[in-house]
Design goal:
With 501 residues, the chain is an alpha+beta fold. The protein folds into four domains: 118 residues, Beta-Lactamase, CATH 3.30.450; 116 residues, Beta-Lactamase (2-Layer Sandwich); 82 residues, Helix Hairpins, CATH 1.10.287; 151 residues, Histidine kinase-like ATPase, C-terminal domain (Heat Shock Protein 90, 2-Layer Sandwich), CATH 3.30.565. Helix content is 43%, strand content 25%. Strands 1, 2, 3, 4, 5 and 6 form a six-stranded antiparallel beta sheet that branches. Strands 8-7-11-10-9 form a five-stranded antiparallel beta sheet. Strand 10 and strand 11 form a beta hairpin. The protein is rod-shaped.
Amino acid sequence: MFQQDQEIFNILLDSVSEGVIVVDQNQTIVEANSSAETMFGYNRKELLQLPLQNLIPQNYHTKHDQHFKGFIKQNKHRQMGQGRDIFGLKKNGVIFPIEASLNPFNIYGQNFIMALVVDITERKKLEEEKIHLAKIFLESLNEIYVFDSKTLKFINANHGAQKNIGYGLEELVTMTPLDIKPNFTEAQFRIQLKDLSDGTKEKIEFDTIHKRKSGSTYPVNVHLQRSVLGDKNVFLAIIIDITEQKNYTSTLEKTVALRTKELKIALAAEKELNDLKTKFLSMVSHEFKTPLSGILTSTILLSKYKQTEQQEKREKHIKTITDKVQYLNAILSDFLSVEKLANGKINYKFTKFNLSKVLNEVIYNANMLLKDGQQINYPKHIDEIYLFQDEKILELSLSNLIYNAIKYSSENTTIDISISQNEHQTTFKIKDEGIGIPEKDQKNIFNRYFRAENALLMQGTGIGLFIVKDHLKKLNGSITFKSIENEGSTFIIELPNKAQS
């Protein structure tokens, strides 16, 4: 009969899914089921008469003895490990987390304790994963919201969301996404959610604007997916603040626009340079060909006048040759000046000089170029005016303007020169009664190689005014003009009395 009872007991014991360990009051194992064998890695024979300490990690032995003795005294059923983790030790040395409940009982006058043991390794892993995911949820710098799929009310929001949006969780749970998405009505937002709600899509993504509690707004990228929380269908929203991305994109677009503009300017400048080169070659060809032809003609004719009485004709052709050579020399000087200005190779020589000396020399040379009936009016009493400047540059500037006034004015006209000086600067005005400058050409008159439309049939390189303006600019001076077509022009030079040497 006892053997039959033992067999029934063993059958019942093995049918229990938990590990069952029965120990006597000396903590010696007297019985164990198959689940306990599998759990701890021992067979039944190895477990029987084995000290319970063998199933407990070494560092828990002392505390276990104290707990066991206390339990024997109380002699009551209780759950082990409440409020703390307890561990078991497998035969192969592996330590694993367990739950255990202790049940005292008495048979034939002897006290025994039956422990129901559960291996909670998988449960611990799941708990750790949940804790880890919860930590990620709470500590993520991105905004994470959970809201009800029916009412749209917020259920939860992480710290990142609360910090950026400015609302606490107690405020958010009374709100919906519509309270922070000013660009959506409820109807529009539910249309946006439709593919998630009916299962057409697992997740959706879109950009929008969020509005903080403070009233400020910022651009966001929204990732939405459906989830389940208990018995509720919910939506999980992960929000990425894309302010920096938008700023970068805006900056990039501005940079591209700026570079495109710069490229267009560079291309326009290159085209202008090519046009200038073409114009320059054409101008050089014309300006050199005309005087060279005159020189060649006069040279041929000069050889024919051998008689003494033909001296006047010889002198006429000699003068023509001299004038043409001087003109070519002037053109070459202009070209060399342009190159020196472009390369920054001009060395100015500053001296103190009397203005009347310079003006008299310029007028003397200009008188030889006057047409019939032309005259130059200029101030005679300027002996008291002195400048500390580059004398040659001032002479070049005045000569250029007076020669132009003569060239572009007809016979029987007057060229007026006026000069005034104050404490800081001297002003020169050269006024003519010439052809004037067309209004549409006036903005380009100081450009290199440019010639006004009404001056194209006259000799000229189009670089004289360019040279004068560049020189004066380097000397902290300026040149301006007023002109009316067919009435005349007035050019004004303003030059500091004392150069900064």
